Task: structure prediction
Amino acid sequence: GESGSGKSMSALAVTKITPRAAQYKGGRIRLNGLDDLSLSERDLCKIRG
Result:
């Protein structure tokens, strides 16, 4: 994608590694059929590697 289109922020949002000022306003993030926003920190660590 083009520079400034949000690729990096999208990747950070999926793995919940966002800046402190970031807010999840609504919607869902689905990763391999799982609702990413409801995963525990432990489960996210498994996904992150």
Q: What stands out?
A: The helical segments are 7-14, 41-48. The CA atoms of residues 4 and 20 lie 20 Å apart.
